Amino acid sequence: SQTIHQWPATLVQPVGSPLSLECTVEGTSNPNLYWYRQAAGRGLQLLFYSVGIGQISSEVPQNLSASRPQDRQFILSSKKLLLSDSGFYLCAWSSPGLTYQETQYFGPGTRLLVL
Amino acid sequence: AQKVTQAQTEISVVEKEDVTLDCVYETRDTTYYLFWYKQPPSGELVFLIRRNSFDEQNEISGRYSWNFQKSTSSFNFTITASQVVDSAVYFCALRGPTNAGKSTFGDGTTLTVKP
Predict the structure, then answer these.
(1) Could you read off the pLDDT of B62-81 as tens digits, one per residue?
(2) Do B43 and A88 touch (CB under 8 A)?
(3) A109/B44 touch (CB, cutoff 8 Å), yes or no
(4) How many CB atoms lie within 10 A of CB B24?
(5) How far is residue B30's CA from residue B94's CA, in Å, rounded to a whole number?
(6) pLDDT (tens digit per residue) in A56-72
(7) Alpha-carbon radius of gyration of chain B
(8) Residue A42 with chain B: CB contacts under 8 Å
(9) Nearest Cβ partner for B45 among A90, A100, A102
């Protein structure tokens, strides 16, 4: 069966510091991968998605970036965090291909607080 | 453009009451998929159901049931005999081909079930 991991679970960072959040998927090959952000009490905002190694699509211009160095690894980064980057970051995967029929499955999330 | 509206921001019920969560969507696609997710206090989004636009048959899974009505663009979710463990934020989502398979989420409905 497939599992998705995210770490760290919680992170407190000062403004201006760098960020690296990691997401890995097990039990599947060439998944579609997604990064979402959820602000407190709000819905989900898609940040990035990837259909393969090195292929990243950005949805919202911001100071965040994403990379996919390996098939089942998806990393969210920032060189300098802003207060507005605080939130709950969720990684998700779906089966390969640009198929809208596929269900997205979510990881446990990372709570980021920027002070 | 796609849009998902969950007009009920918060709902509070007493245990054993039935509760219906509303979801109304907008899309120009003729083929699309609808999803419901549950987000308990731990934060992880748990997949509940997927329904394609050609299947208007209602579905029941234990205490959960879903009513899909294409004529009114609604995909409502009913919990029968609610329990405290049903307390969570519930999200409705839409995926279709013209949005490159990306999900459009509603803002969520926070359900509180009191003992």
Answers:
(1) 999 999 999 999 999 999 99
(2) yes
(3) yes
(4) 17
(5) 12
(6) 988 886 789 999 999 99
(7) 14
(8) 107
(9) A90
